[in-house]
Amino acid sequence: MSQPLIACESLVRIYQTGSIEVQALQGLDLHIDAGEMVAVVGASGSGKSTLLSILAGIDAPTAGRAHVDGWDLLSMTRGERVRYRRQTVGFVRQQTASNLVPYLTAAQVVDLPMTAAGRPRRERRERVGALLETLGVSDCAQRKPGQMSGGQQQRVAIAVALANEPRVLFADEPTGELDTATSAQVFEALRHVNRELGVTVVVVTHDPEVSGQVERTVAIRDGRTSSEVLRRTATAENGDTHVIAEEYAVMDRAGRVQVPREYREALALTRRVRLALEADHVTIKPDA
Ligand code: ADP
Ligand code: MG
Q1: Ligand 1: does its nearest atom lie under 6 Å from the Cβ of 93?
Q2: Where are the alpha helices (DSSP H) in 135-223?
Q3: pLDDT tens for residues 3-62?
Q4: In the chain, domain spans
Q5: How many Å apart are CA 90 and CA 165, to the nearest integer?
Q6: Class of domain 6-258
Q7: Quick check: 62 and 14 in contact, CB under 8 A?
Q8: Closest C-alpha among 169, 71, 156 to residue 110
Q9: Fewer CB within 10 A of the end CB, N or C, for the chain?
Q10: Nearest residue CA, atom 27 of ligand 1?
């Protein structure tokens, strides 16, 4: 069995401010294979941004395991973290404005990470042109952020994130500040990057439309992965194709599973339940 590109196990991140402790991630499990495009959904405050900043090498976890493309995110040195951020991952932030630099043109800002990595000038110039073209924003090459629309800014931000050919692109609510039509364009750009360039894409989104378009959606709840929806296209006998979406609960290494609230309420499942092993399934019954 091949190793997943991204593997998080029992990942914990505790923020300490004064005497107050916030457990942003409370033992999160997540595996993502190379080439996948995965949507991450969850209520505000559930830990989505914390997860992405850890995976992008911007923040460090408190405990647990997190590996990306062979890097151990818990034990890497400061120097390794710099290399990891420069070579392995690209990151598009939540706020549109924070991804670009007000006084730099699109061509200049896409060039920046390549200059930092010491790539030769000619190679840089060619790649800037190719990336802006791939993302459909060639016409913005000589424009600064103030002269671009929100959607154009986010597509340039994706080009910046891809400049050094990362294996994974993380995007934290990249369409959060955009209208529906513009969001669709930006999301299409992400799908294009995934399909055509083979970059693994992990995108946090509130948009149900978006999570409806990817093969796998991971739901985070209270700092843990609680469920996943997998979609596949099936062909009926008459040749029609339709999408089948199936929801799965996520089980951690210790065997813990979260039972959805509706199920618990329907059968008044509370502190104790009875488990029974059947031939091909397990039942959970109220403790009556
Ligand atoms: P989401 O992106 O899903 O809205 P976040 O990852 O931003 O959630 O936040 C998860 C929890 O961690 C929240 O309770 C938030 O208030 C807290 N948190 C996030 N960043 C910090 C920080 N730098 N310091 C203290 N608490 C934080
Ligand atoms: Mg967030």
Answers
A1: no
A2: 150-162, 180-197, 208-211
A3: 899 999 999 999 998 888 999 999 999 999 999 999 999 999 999 999 999 999 999 999
A4: 6-258, 259-288
A5: 8
A6: alpha beta
A7: yes
A8: 156
A9: N
A10: 15
Task: For ligand 1, say whether the CB of 48 is within 6 Å of any of its atoms.
Answer: yes
Q: Could you tell me how far CA 206 lies from the centroid of its own chain?
A: 12
The whole-angstrom separation of Cα 50 and Cα 38 is 17
The tokens for 4 are: 């997943």
**Pick from 261, 255, 252: which is nearest to 275 by CA?**
255
The two tokens of residue 210 are 């978006």
Q: Verify whether ligand 1 is closer than 6 Å to residue 50 (CB atom).
A: yes
Least confident of 51-60, 152-161, 192-201, 257-266: 257-266
Residues 97 and 109 sit within 8 Å (Cβ to Cβ)? no
**pLDDT, tens digit, for every residue of 87-123?**
999 999 887 778 899 999 999 999 999 999 999 999 9
For 165, the token pair is 């050919």
Say what the pLDDT of residue 94 is.
80
pTM of the predicted structure, to 2 decimals: 0.90
Neighbours of 254 (CB within 10 A): 8
pLDDT band at 181 (very low <50, low <70, confident <90, very high): confident
Distance 12 CA to ligand 2 centre (A): 17
Q: Which ligand is nearest to the CA of 48?
A: 1
Give the Å distance between the CA of 223 and the centre of ligand 2: 12
Residue having the nearest C-alpha atom to atom 16 of ligand 1: 45
Q: Read off the pLDDT of each residue in 256-280 and give the average, rounded to a whole number.
A: 89
Q: How far apart are alpha carbons 269 and 283 in whole angstroms?
A: 12
d(CA 120, CA 117): 9
Average pLDDT of the chain to the nearest whole number: 91
